[in-house]
Amino acid sequence: MSYKNPEFFYLLLLLLPIIAWYIWQQKKLGASLQFSSNMGFARIPKNWKYYFRHSVFVLQMLSLSILIVALARPQSSNSWSNVTTKGIDIVIALDISGSMMAMDFSPNRIEAAKDVAIQFISGRPNDRIGLVIFSGESFTQCPLTTDHATVINLFKGVESGMIEDGTAIGNGLATAVSRLKDSDAISKVVILLTDGENNRGEIAPVTAGELAKTFGIRVYTIGIGTMGMAPFPVQTPFGVQVRDVEVKIDEVLLQKIASTTGGKYFRATNNNKLAEIYQEIDKLEKSKIDVKEYSKKEEEYLKYASAGTLLLLLGMFLKTTIFRNIP
Length: 327
Fold this sequence. Notes:
Helix content is 41%, strand content 22%. It is α/β, with parallel strands linked by helices. The two termini are 47 Å apart.
């Protein structure tokens, strides 16, 4: 319980002189008669009015006290609710090209990227999340939504080979930007994850980065893949064989996109590093939002005012009826 105007409690001090005046008046109004003996009066029983003779004054003081509490405007603190302002709109642009099947991550790059991204989404309850996938082309797998269960289910269904193979980084980023450009969120973010070099698509990655900057969209780029060689499953006439292939990531390009848009470039070389990168992005974005909290309080003064008024009326009724003084 809290009070909007606690300074009104000082009015309770005024009750002290009123109580003192009442006690003084009771002594002053007492009449005295002289008798030779009071033995005859000792046997006279006292009725209930004698014991409740001060009840009217007690009711009056109690009603005034409650009315003063009502003036202080009590508010129930247990009904407060924090309302967070609009969060961030985030689109994850995920490379699903054939090279994402490399096994330098457990069990492979694309599954590791999906698992960590799902954990990231679960930790952002106030944000709208969208998903863009790209390979030789790009498309929106899930538009921006706060229905994170749907986003996660669509994430789980993503597989390499869903669209034409290749690495169209520019197209993937441009598609993500198109999903965010009309957003009125306080922060707009693209997390772009790829393991290769741009070799397909009509839109140059640098052009897509400039487009993101124009719309105030911050891009975090992640290059996923170990250093040097990585085991990769290859289909042969004798079945699937694992061969080492060279890891080629255009880090210069990814760094340029990130720096142009005010984001940051990361290199993930294993599962743990990838998880740490998403954790860092999570912290960076939380620190960039000035979240305002508004407290809703339920007013309680009406019940106190009603109770105080009822007690005051009861005291007046008793004073003019049962405890009425006859001059």
